[in-house]
């Protein structure tokens, strides 16, 4: 059976990527990956805990293996992620005495220096290979009055870490495209906070190229109308948009659990992928890449031992699902 390549089918529109780990760059997974995708993101291997497990000691081995695979196969690489509140090493938020950092001027200076050191080393290392970076990830929390997530970053530095991260990343690789990445960007309240932040950054001359929309979705959400409104909103600021972590959960609530995916649910998922990619193609001048958060259903962050999920284009046997057909056959 010779099915069409996803990225070749969409070559008039945008590159199509997958989030990967080491197990995807050998054997049958690597064959599937290179056939259907022309971009990759490291699912975990470029996060702070992976790259700088102890201060000043960088471990690029696994990330380099993924990047070298991509280069050898003419694939783009998105970098994910420089600054986040998760998957950080424990030393990062310890003060000079090894205690948990409290918000003091000394600790603010120390933490911003660590941020600068990390970004210079990482972006410098991948310079010319990683074309786009998720510079900051998930900094918006719409439940806060000012919209800023109360992370350790915010607690110690206020919003200053965001601007600093973009400025340093741009210095380290002036050619890299720089994104602010977040989930639920179609939510009107969250979207408004994100909009005000990026407008403010742009006004102050901060080097930001665009917004990364994670787009962790499900079979009934979001609507294409909300996707189109969201992308057009940010495009109106002169910003690029990338879909960075697309997947479509088979669940619309947090309690349902299937032992195996019902066929009617897989069909619904196929229609949701079709509808989302219709919107993305319609928005092709505003969206410069679309990345799936995984290659096949045998490896997805949405599956737990007690609650499986099947959110991607290919099943556990690496066979095309209705979701795949929704992407390549928009009729
Ligand atoms: C997830 C990975 O997929 C998991 O393997 C890991 O255990 C936790 O992180 N938003 C993001 C991604 O920006 O980095 C997250 O990736 C998924 C949610």
Structure, described:
The protein is an alpha/beta fold and 331 residues long. It has a single domain (6-328), classed as Alpha-Beta Barrel (TIM Barrel). Helices cover 38% and strands 16% of the residues. It has 11 helices and 9 strands. It has helices at residues 6-9, 27-36, 48-51, 61-72, 105-125, 152-157, 160-172, 188-203, 224-235, 263-282, 322-328, and strands at residues 16-20, 39-42, 76-83, 132-137, 177-182, 210-213, 216-218, 240-249, 287-292. An 8-stranded parallel barrel has the order 1-2-3-4-5-6-8-9, surrounded by 5 helices. The protein is globular, with a radius of gyration of 20 Å. (3S,4R)-3-hydroxy-2-oxopiperidin-4-yl beta-D-xylopyranoside binds at residues 43-44, 137, 214, 245, 301.
